[in-house]
Design a protein that fits this description.
Layout lengths: L2 E6 L13 H14 L10 E4 L12 H11 L4 E4 L2 E2 L5 H14 L4 E6 L3 H6 L4 H20 L2 E5 L4 E6 L12 E4 L3 H10 L2 E4 L4 H18 L8 E9 L3 H19 L28 E4 L1 H15 L3 E6 L5 H21 L4
Parallel strand pairs: 1-2, 1-12, 2-3, 3-5, 4-5, 5-8, 8-9, 9-10, 10-11, 10-12
Antiparallel strand pairs: 6-7
Helix pairs in contact: 3-5, 6-7, 9-10
Length: 346
């Protein structure tokens, strides 16, 4: 079975003046708060929200969205892919995890990420510092999930005998996830026993990253099957296969143009961020899955099988009109989700 998820970017409204108009912002929130619970009857496994700041999205505090959606649902899983640890006090993240796992009745997924350079720069944080903070915060997070009282004396955080409550409802702890774009990050996640999710890369590159995870997991004795691996792709779906594909090609060019601002992108016009093999990512045509429902299901299943992923995260066009977005959720849920759940991955 391939578990189908929604990856919710929750973009800021694009209509002129909407961000500065309280009533229009309220209407925008309420529309999405009505949409997200639809994932449950449509058969999605769950929703992963994202954390972004300074105008990119309306989700600077995605844990608040989880708490709200939990009140309106009963079975779907809820998480963040991922919470940007360098921006937070890790002990507070642990406390919020405990609270959210209770508020969701044990449906929480823990996802973390190091962040993106454009946002770091706006608060005066270098990429090097962000990675240091991320590594240290993960060390605290893992220790606090394993035991109720911990001490830590590192570069950025120092404390002795902190008791963090409440403890999560799920035991030993909610599933842990990390967003990765490199083999090195995949190996780190495997050593922690965390699941991984990636996107953008062509499937051959994703396979290499997942192979590194499987190799490291085998070495340290942690799980490494399809249920540990998630593939995220951008999905365009509609009844007219040719029209959807044509629109998706335009969307692909828009996404590529937007992502050129990310220094991690491997682009011929400039040196890649860090090194080509560690932290750079590329965008393959595989990133964009488009067409009628049967075609979309076939592409998603084929890619998951090629890389060995047991989870598929669909992110829909964030520039689409609300009605188009709702229709995409419905069509994917009614016609693609059942096909994914019937599929097998070795």
């Amino acid at each position: 079975m391939i578990k189908p998820w929604i990856f919710e970017f929750f973009p800021a409204p694009r209509e002129p003046g909407a961000i500065d108009d309280p009533q229009r912002s309220a209407d925008y929130f309420n529309w999405y708060l009505d949409l997200w619970p639809r994932a449950e009857p449509l058969g999605y496994e769950g929703i992963f929200f994202s954390e972004h700041h300074f105008g990119l999205a309306y989700s600077p505090a995605p844990n608040l969205l989880i708490a709200q959606v939990a009140l309106r649902t009963r079975t779907i899983r809820l998480g963040v892919m991922g919470l940007v640890l360098p921006y937070h006090q890790p002990w507070k993240v642990v406390e919020e995890i405990g609270m959210l796992d209770h508020l969701t009745q044990g449906r929480l997924e823990i996802g973390t990420a190091a962040g993106i350079p454009q946002e770091m720069a706006q608060v005066g944080m270098s990429v090097a510092e962000a990675h240091e903070r991320n590594d240290e915060a993960i060390e605290i997070l893992d220790a606090a999930l394993a035991q109720p009282v911990i001490s830590h004396h590192g570069k950025y955080w120092r404390f002795t005998d902190l008791r963090m409550v409440p403890r999560p409802l799920q035991r030993p702890w909610p599933p842990k996830w990390v967003t990765v774009i490199s083999e090195d990050s995949a190996r780190k996640a495997a050593r922690r026993g965390a699941r991984i999710c990636t996107g953008f890369h062509p499937t051959a590159r994703v396979r290499s990253i997942f192979d590194a995870y499987r190799d490291e997991a085998s070495r340290v004795g942690t799980a490494s099957g399809p249920d540990q691996l998630a593939l995220r792709r951008q999905v365009s779906i509609g009844t007219d296969d040719a029209a959807v594909r044509a629109a998706a090609r335009i969307r692909e060019q828009q996404v590529r143009t937007r992502l050129l601002a990310d220094p991690r992108l491997s682009a011929p016009e400039r040196p890649v961020f860090d090194t080509p093999t560690s932290h750079a990512f590329s965008i393959g045509s595989d990133e964009f899955i488009a067409g009628a429902p049967g075609n979309v299901a076939e592409q998603a299943i084929a890619q998951c099988r090629e890389v060995g992923a047991g989870h598929f995260l669909a992110t829909f066009d964030r520039s689409a009109a609300r009605e188009q977005l709702r229709d995409a959720w419905e069509m994917f849920g009614t016609e693609v989700v059942p096909a994914l759940r019937r599929a097998t991955v070795n």
